[in-house]
């Protein structure tokens, strides 16, 4: 027998806005209260659309793995299509299966590890700015710096040297407002497409980015040279059944998807990592000792990351506490049950990664930063889903971890970064999870720290 999707009195929604006021005021606080009061699977309303929130690993597995064929991407991700096109994040059905099959070899760990040098090179401007801040005593905006370095890293991995400094400056200028506009579109209850200044700005930003990506793809096709970067691998990819590769339009969509998924999520992970280590100086000191002993003054490689267990544990614990992709939206394509609850065709389900990864049943002291749990066998794999699960698990998970590991190792080896007062304590749950204020840090060079 299936349960009825009831609406507890404590979750009584506004007749038009639903729970939108509470979600906009403090989404995570509201959802944590609802889970504590009503259990791990409960309904909320986003405007007039009802959403079943899933905050338990077994139910999440139903949605993402065992019954995945009964779901498509949720409406929030569907609203990204005007910007992203039909890349892996937004594509469905046979289009998604073909693209995933073509792209998977390029994202194998062994293929990606050859790009570690590009990531290290992309971090050079960051290290130079931190060195300058250490000399001058000027504070740095950690979040902004991590956005810059993550964007440069993903550009280097995607294009190698194909993106010149002028074009990289255009990407750095145009991508953030385009992402902000996309985030606003996702949150909006009403679909407007009027020629407002914001809409014209969005179109201009998209056209500027498209022009750069189109040029690189066109020139790489004409040269016949693949290259060792991700774009080269994707140009060379052929279907195992003898079919062709990706068209230029399909490549554009995948590149824009990788820009989105490959830089903001890594940047927020690094920001939260450095913030957490600043709040736990004893852990930071241990990580720095580990990194400095393992690396010395040589350029780090992907192989070096395997010899940094405490740094890797800190990254995993940061991903647990602050998953950048904090929820996974799905829409039922046929009637289906989740945790015994009936979901009609067209019904919306939200797998809440944040709540699952802070569930006290699976994580002792769930809100505490305890990287040692990853070294003591205390982790719970089924309750750790920062990259999703099932066939649609994030294809770039190894790349994200390698980028974060290399950049963090370089920063922690060379600098001591303090966030006075502990930094912002609140969280903003938008398209990605972020601190609710600027993270400003004071920097000292390693030589000064060790004197």
TrEMBL record:
Keyword Metal-binding: yes
Domain of life from the UniProt record: Bacteria
Keywords: Heme, Iron, Metal-binding, Monooxygenase, Oxidoreductase
Cofactor(s), names only, from the UniProt record: heme
Residues at which heme binds: 394
GO molecular function: heme binding; iron ion binding; monooxygenase activity; oxidoreductase activity, acting on paired donors, with incorporation or reduction of molecular oxygen
SUPFAM superfamilies: Cytochrome P450 (SSF48264)
Family: Belongs to the cytochrome P450 family.
Name of the protein in its database record: Cytochrome P450
Source organism: Deinococcus terrestris
